[in-house]
Amino acid sequence: MANGENQNPNPNPNPSEATPGTTAKMITLKTTNCEIFEVEEAVAMEFSTVKSFFEDDTVLATTPMPLPNVSGSALSQR
Questions:
Q1: 12/66 Cα distance (integer angstroms)
Q2: Which residues does the UniProt record annotate as the domain SKP1 component POZ (predicted)?
């Protein structure tokens, strides 16, 4: 390291975000009216319900998480 430069082997300062040119890992959510939403894992894991669902060892990351009390229109609002 020249001139006191700090070289970080990971160029992305936030490892939960996808680096340019890569695809973020996605989580599938299924609403009460059977609408399917693909959400970035980093965003989905901010919700404790989603996080605990996928932390269960018997649940595969590809399993759609059912949201029995959430409608598709509620998730699609901005």
A1: 32
A2: 25-76
